[in-house]
Write a structure and sequence with these properties.
Layout: H1 6-13, E1 22-31, E2 34-38, E3 45-48, E4 69-76, E5 84-87, H2 89-106, E6 110-118, E7 121-126, E8 129-134, E9 153-162, E10 167-171, H3 173-190, E11 196-204, E12 208-212, E13 217-221, E14 242-251, E15 254-258, H4 270-273, E16 279-287, E17 291-297, E18 300-305, E19 326-335, E20 340-344, H5 354-398
Parallel strand pairs: 3-5, 13-15, 18-20
Antiparallel strand pairs: 1-2, 1-4, 2-3, 4-5, 6-7, 6-9, 7-8, 9-10, 11-12, 11-14, 12-13, 14-15, 16-17, 16-19, 17-18, 19-20
Length: 405
């Protein structure tokens, strides 16, 4: 038997490795774009940045340090330069896939950081294995901009697992919906009509505000925002704003809210402030053919009938008055039980003759009956408008959440 050369003995002292084999090594050098491992072989192992992680432009010196031990899979025993080409991320992805498969079978809730925002949703990485969460399954409400999720740790479940087709789908929405249903049950078990509760503005529309009560949304209709007149809720509220709201009504899963608290009702002391014969000043809030409604203060409107504007004949108030105009008039009638106040500008004009005054008083008596009828007519019109707005609100609630893909 011939004696072995030193080189032969040295080579035999090293272990043999094969493509696809998992090896363990010690980090002997780290550069921003590659890691060098001593794997107990005649050549060192190299892990490039692309074979370490899917994170773009990752500085490897921030991920590992000299002396660390790690496992990797052999891709090429000789990369052409006499070194062993290794992959860390593919081995990690295999482990990640196994973890994802177990989570899929056991319906386990996973937690991971959002790595990328894609056109159609989010990409999260579980041990170098990618999971795609479609935009429709990210939240229980429609979200146009998903950028806020980048770098955020989220929980989800795996609803589809097919690694061969590189199709691993996650779902965050069902977790949020389950949690919301739980909170909803708790909320409805403790609230009742008349309660004052805390809420957060979720969405603002032309007809009202949707307020998150912590488990369910309530509708603050435009007519319940203030005792006064609100032209556009969007000028008053913004999403995220905190509110204390009164629960006005509960119908199954629908909650009607109000900011018209009883202790702030302007009609509480209206009888003393607006007694008959007092002269008041207010702004014209709206007009009809039969008269103008004058806002004496937010929540209290008085009717200035067309016959009480001037001693001269006027076809309709708009002929001489306009919305927003400030007018001074005398209170000629006050019915606290009906919350009705009637005004007269004509009563402040001194009649030239007593006969004219007597005739005016006669006309006032007749007009007061007509005024009641006209006010009721105006209220019916307002009620009809509110009903239409409520129907619009119901339609908005039913289309608030998109159908999941």
């Amino acid at each position: 038997m011939s004696e072995q050369t030193f080189e032969q003995m040295l080579e035999e002292s090293f272990k043999t490795i094969h493509n696809g084999e998992v090896v363990e090594g010690t980090v002997i050098d780290v550069k921003p774009d590659e890691i060098i491992l001593n794997i107990g072989y005649k050549s060192d192992g190299i892990i490039t940045r692309n074979e370490y992680s899917n994170t773009p432009n990752l500085d490897l010196t921030t991920a590992v340090k000299v002396g660390d031990t790690m496992e990797a899979r052999v891709m090429k025993v000789n990369d052409g330069d006499g070194q062993v080409l290794l992959t860390y991320k593919r081995l990690a992805a295999d482990k990640g896939n196994k973890k994802l498969e177990e989570a899929f079978n056991n319906k386990e809730v996973l937690k991971a950081t959002v790595a990328q925002i894609l056109d159609g949703g989010l990409s999260v990485v579980v041990e170098e294995s990618r999971v795609f969460i479609p935009a429709s399954l990210v939240s229980d409400t429609y979200e146009r901009d998903l950028s806020k999720y980048l770098g955020q740790e989220i929980e989800f479940v795996i609803t589809e697992f097919n690694p061969r087709r590189r199709r691993i789908i996650g779902d965050r929405k069902q977790l949020l919906m389950a949690e919301r249903e739980k909170l909803q049950e708790e909320l409805f078990s403790r609230i009742k009509v008349g309660d004052v509760v805390d809420g957060v503005v979720k969405n603002v529309t032309d007809f009202g505000v949707f307020v998150d009560l912590g488990g369910a949304d309530g509708l603050l209709h435009i007519s319940e925002i203030s005792w006064g007149r609100v032209e556009n809720p969007k000028k008053v509220f913004k999403p995220g704003q905190e509110l204390k709201v009164l629960i006005k009504d509960i119908q199954e899963k629908k909650i009607a809210l109000s900011l018209k608290f009883a202790d702030s009702n302007p009609w509480n002391d209206a009888e003393s402030k607006y007694a008959v014969d007092k002269v008041v000043t207010g702004k014209i809030a709206r007009m009809t053919d039969f008269g103008a409604f004058v806002e004496l203060e937010p929540g209290i409107d008085a009717l200035l009938h067309v016959s009480q504007i001037s001693r001269e004949h006027i076809d309709k108030p708009a002929d001489i008055l306009k919305v927003g105009q400030e007018v001074t008039a005398k209170i000629v009638d006050f019915k606290p039980e009906d919350k009705k106040i009637s005004l007269s500008m004509k009563a402040l004009i001194e009649p030239e003759k007593k006969e004219e005054e007597a005739e005016a008083e006669e006309n006032d008596d007749v007009v007061s009956v007509d005024i009641d009828a006209e006010i009721e007519k105006a209220k019916e019109e307002e009620a009809k408008e509110e009903a239409e707005a409520e129907a619009e609100a119901d339609a908005a609630e039913s289309t608030e959440e998109p159908v999941a893909e």
